[in-house]
Each structure stands twice: as C-alpha cells, then as structure tokens.
Specification:
single chain, 61 residues, mainly alpha, 2 helices, 0% strand, extended
Length: 61
C-alpha cells in the first residue's frame, strides 16, 4: 500500500503544525486573552490551562 495521502490530509496536517507552532509562541497574557475569548459568555471563571508532563521537573518561579 502506497504512503500517498490526499491533498486534503496533507493540507490539514500543515495547518495543524502551523497552529501548534503559533500556540507555542504565545505569551502567558496572550494565552489568557485567548482563554477569555474562547469561554465568553460564560458564568464560570476563566483559568489558563497549563499542560503538565508527567515526570517532568517542576518549573521554578
């Protein structure tokens, strides 16, 4: 079976990679602003999500 993928799948993967890179480049304030926009209007308070990697060293503040 060939490893040829449809142009739609290739385009989707390129777009996802681009979005992931853009997300990594955001500052904490920009991430919080995005969280506010994504949850408005809502009755629950907004909290920035922080991904945690199991077994990773804790970040010092």
């Amino acid at each position: 079976m060939a490893n040829d993928q449809s142009p739609a799948v290739e385009s989707l993967r390129r777009e996802q990679k681009s979005q992931e890179q853009a997300e990594r480049e955001l500052t904490s304030d920009q991430k919080l602003e995005r969280a506010l926009k994504d949850t408005f209007p809502a009755s629950d308070p907004v909290a920035q999500q922080v991904p945690i990697t199991p077994g990773a060293a804790e970040e010092q503040k």
